[in-house]
Model the fold of this input.
Amino acid sequence: MKTPAEAKKRDTYHHGDLRSQLIEATRQLVEEKGPDNFSVSEACRRAGVSTAAPYKHFKDKTEMLREVAAAGMIRQSEQMMMELLPLSEGSRARIVALGRVYIRFATTEPGVFRLMFTWMGETEDDESLHALGDSKFSVVQMEVAKCHGRSAVTDVDRQKAFILWSFVHGLSFLSIDGKLADDKMPTDLETLLEDVASRIVPEAAEV
Amino acid sequence: MKTPAEAKKRDTYHHGDLRSQLIEATRQLVEEKGPDNFSVSEACRRAGVSTAAPYKHFKDKTEMLREVAAAGMIRQSEQMMMELLPLSEGSRARIVALGRVYIRFATTEPGVFRLMFTWMGETEDDESLHALGDSKFSVVQMEVAKCHGRSAVTDVDRQKAFILWSFVHGLSFLSIDGKLADDKMPTDLETLLEDVASRIVPEAAEV
DNA sequence: TTACAATGTTAGAGTCTCTAACTTATATGT
DNA sequence: ACATATAAGTTAGAGACTCTAACATTGTAA
Done:
């Protein structure tokens, strides 16, 4: 008598993999409905458990969303590192690549991206999200330093990295808000990134 | 028998100024609790009316928040225009001023600022919010053109304005997320804005 | 194997959004 | 001035949601 739309009923009392499946359901829902319209109930329906089940694994709704946000942070970092691999050290192409991947993540997973920066301003958040963000910033700082042929990061590098980060961060939001539509922008994203990078960091480091 | 904490009871059946007072209560709550934790019920309590009253003035919760967001857009625009007044035409100081006010608004009213860009990505939003944002962008485009001694906006101006906007937009978010704390940034905001502006627009227009 | 810890369940309290039906004040037409 | 329509409140309540309490089932370890 199970409805077709209903998720497969378990034959075992215990789910076996509920925690991670709830996180995945949460991620999907955040993407589909937006971070605001996510409900624990619906995630439970997708995972095929009662609405009380999540509270054996998470303190509350916020903690579930925080898990998704943290996973997003890590996923974005990994993508950035991946893109860096084939590019030669100290080249400006690496700076451009970091920006490109940052924005690609935002446009590919706008819901999660928004979520990642939703609670940033709140005081009660744990440090882990901030730490994950800071580590990404450190990478950019390092790349800027290397573009100048330095192995240690100076204040100038920090400032330049911050400018680049702000630009890319803002561009990401404007993109998912539809401001990067073709009729708004004269040039494409790649040209834009190149343009900005060229104004901040030198062409190549003198070895 | 009225509790002291309770809002003053009306002697008239009709409130008289409910719509605007609900908007103001909403604005305050968005600022105090954040856009996510706002509830219509609490706004009603503040305004001293029943929880059904708002629905005579607004379609739903979203429409109330949208009003606050739109008012924020306008307020921010006004502040930007205000700051522009005493500065001479075509000077780069005007560009810097626009950025400074943009960020000042974000840090002064972080709740409303977040709210303004919360629904931007959603498809069902009406055009008014986008239109308000676009008009601000147009101002920046004009200022960039004037810095180059042009009276009409070219594609180059558009692109430069977009870069500036992205930067300032991202910087605003990073600021309210605590990334602009003293220990993170070597220089102050004003220096940073000057630095960026100098990389995008020329010092002064040749008349 | 027997007790305990982990992980499910149902029931329900409390909150929220929004609608329906009703009530009161205000505005309008003659 | 008076009747009446409309605007703007009210209470009651449906339906959804978060989270807790108490109970049920399963896995694990002494």
